[in-house]
Amino acid sequence: MKSLLTVLALLLLGSVPALAQDKGHPAPPPKDVGHGYVPRKGPAPARPDVHPAPKFSDKPGHPEAPHVHTNGKWIGHDSGPNDARYHLDHPWEHGHFTGGFGRGHVWRLEGGNRERFWFGGFYFSIFPADYAYCDDWDWGTDQISIFEDPDHVGFYLAYNVRLGTYCHVTFLGNS
Fold first, then answer.
1. pLDDT attached to residue 62
2. CA 156, CA 133: separation in Å to the nearest integer?
């Protein structure tokens, strides 16, 4: 019995350094991105037929993902309505989101992942073209706000309040 307790004590001591290691959490966003800021309105429609290569880190330390500056400038939403990456064969297939848009409607994510997440009985999916931009979202606690996408039919923009980043999403319905 004494040797069993000794072995268990050694195993417990050996696990302490593993618990102290960084879990790969990303660095916090820069001061002018995220930190609870919610834009007053969504992005303005883009100029038609402009398809720049995606480059999102517009300043040192800014995320390499679509984001919004605390002055309301949307970075990365400028490819226009003909961007083939954001095309749906059946827009609004599951209806329209009716929970409210923008700054006055901030929701806490209640679970899921990029393929299907929910809040307040509403279900969404990150569009595959934007999967890489939501890797650091916390699907159980982050707050988001939904904006209408002025350029891409059938899409909304889910804005992560903590990070200041956003992704194109499709509405999957409500319960």
1. 93
2. 15
